[in-house]
Amino acid sequence: MDRSPLKVRAGITDFPHMNPRTIPPATSGRNLIDSTFGFQPVAASVLEVVEALPCNVFLLRSGRPVLFATRGAEAADVVARTRRDVAFYVRTEDTELMRRSLSRSVPRILSDPELSPVERSRRAYGVVAHVMTPIFSPRQRIDQAGLDDAGWAIDSIKDSLGVDSDLIWSFVATMNKHLSTHTHAINTAVYAVLIADALGITGEEGRDIGRGALLHDIGKNRIPPAILDKPGPLDEAEWTLMRSHPRVGYDLIVRAMGSAPSYAHIIAEHHERADGSGYPLQRLAGEVAQSSQLVSIADAYDALTSARSYKPASSSYGALWTMRFRMRGQFDGLLLAAFVDMLGGWGQLRRVERRTLDLSATGS
């Protein structure tokens, strides 16, 4: 192989002249993903939303990461030079640059007039999922920069949904309903800001609801995956550990930010219930902030309408019926009614349920 220096044209390397001598060897993509060799993956569909690359990006060639494009190159051009299923990689020390660039791209994506509401929603959801994934990775260090990037992203979504009704339902349709902690966080945040908007909650309080909802389960990254993903019922010791995640999450946020941010109470209270049956402190409705009670409704609804290893997803009607009747008294009645109305009301939800069952029965 030619060992001459890399030739770069418009920020993209000329592959016949690649020089991998300074790049650590790797034996598989898995090794890169777990950072053994100091690289992290970025999907092409995520990378292409950035206008200019904030750092160098690499591809795997024969199990070895090689420089493909340099900082400043047009991301769309870089992605166009490869297959859509190709994964790019950035050095671990550059992940913060990439994450920040991605989070700052969300307002531009959501306001792009050349994209349909569905495509804008799909791209924005993918970007936010990429930003959130490391925050919810087990044992991952949580820092203020990462939390600020996550907050920027959900603030942008909240602002866009407030002025574009077509985008609301496109975003809901885009949601990943195969439950994982980071996608559940995004879904919960979207539902929460929609409820807040329906109730006329704006300004800093509205932003706090979005940010608190997005990070409500941050404490779960200190819960063993074997417990989070257990297909059967948890035993008492496992439940005790699971019930600790609101307090653990609150403490993580306070340590990362240096003091309690204005949304921290939502993280601590999102499993409290209006009738005192929640945890960790069994507080009654009058002792729990309205913003926390609102997020608890969004949290429960998304959990019920998402598939888990031990249960299928419920329909919207089925989930809300469960929350209204089987879980009677656990949620603030006015907040729950506002959420039902926002989703179309009981009548509309029931008609959708019947239509879905009829289609299933006929095999259509």
What does the model show?
- This protein has 364 residues and is mostly helical.
- It has 17 helices and six strands.
- The strands form three sheets. It has a two-stranded antiparallel sheet. A two-stranded antiparallel sheet has the order 3-6. A two-stranded antiparallel sheet has the order 4-5.
- A hairpin with a 2-residue loop joins strand 4 and strand 5.
- Helix 6 packs across helix 9.
Provide a short characterization of the protein structure.
By secondary structure, the protein is mainly α. The chain has helices at residues 29-33, 44-47, 75-80, 95-110, 117-132, 144-161, 165-174, 181-198, 203-214, 225-228, 236-242, 245-257, 264-269, 290-304, 316-326, 333-342, 345-362; strands at residues 8-9, 12-13, 39-43, 57-61, 64-69, 87-91.
Features of the shown structure:
globular; mainly alpha; 6 strands; two-stranded antiparallel sheet; 364 residues; two-stranded antiparallel ribbon
Total of DSSP H or I helical runs spanning 4+ residues: 17
- The outline comes out as globular
Determine the fraction of residues in helical runs and give it as a percent range. 40-55%
CA radius of gyration: 22 Å
Topology:
Blueprint (H helix, E strand, L loop, with lengths): L7 E2 L2 E2 L15 H5 L5 E5 H4 L9 E5 L2 E6 L5 H6 L6 E5 L3 H16 L6 H16 L11 H18 L3 H10 L6 H18 L4 H12 L10 H4 L7 H7 L2 H13 L6 H6 L20 H15 L11 H11 L6 H10 L2 H18 L2
Helix pairs in contact: 4-5, 4-6, 5-6, 5-7, 6-8, 6-9, 8-9, 8-14, 9-14, 14-15
